[in-house]
Fold this sequence. Notes:
Blueprint: H1 2-19, H2 24-32, H3 39-42, E1 49-56, E2 59-66, E3 95-98, E4 102-104, E5 107-109, E6 112-119, E7 125-130, E8 146-152, E9 155-172, E10 175-193
Antiparallel strand pairs: 1-2, 2-3, 3-6, 4-5, 4-10, 6-7, 7-8, 9-10
Protein name: DUF2911 domain-containing protein
InterPro entries: DUF2911
Amino acid sequence: MKYKILIILLVVAVSGCKNEGKNNSEIETEHNHTQSEPKSDNKKTLSPHTSAMAMIGDAHIHIDYSSPGVRNRIIFGGLLAYDQVWQAGAHMATWLETNKDLEIDGKELKAGKYGFFVIPNQKEWTVIFNRNWNQHGKDDYTEKDDVLRFKVTPKTSEEIKEHLEYKVDKTTETSGTISMSWEKVTIEFPFEIK
């Protein structure tokens, strides 16, 4: 009998210790056995991870990025300052991979994987391919790792593109265009397969 009482007291003491440090609502929730929905399943990702790909001849071109939303914000010249490097997406830097050499703006981009960065401006943007493709945002960006830089003129629209979107479009068996659209701005540039 002494052992039974001792075991019961031990169980009560351990149970009391488990609830120590919890507020009353946490204890009530446990005892009512109600389960709340997991937050991660219910919460919509604000910048979903996505990609754009195309086969042009024997060339496979793949752009990997996270797609932020406008969400009633001024993006270019607001959230993203003009004349500063941007990783052209959310979270990790956007990257482009090609299995064939490309010619862009009269310059060669060797087959490989590259970080894709831009410097937005109202009149022209600088497009950058950087050898450091695996970085968070622009934290490790350095101009000395740039392998290709060129300028493009942005196109503006009255319609808002809510989520950042890249496209790789085939124009012939050996050429195509890459475009990036977000908010009211689109940039686009052609490329040739070498």
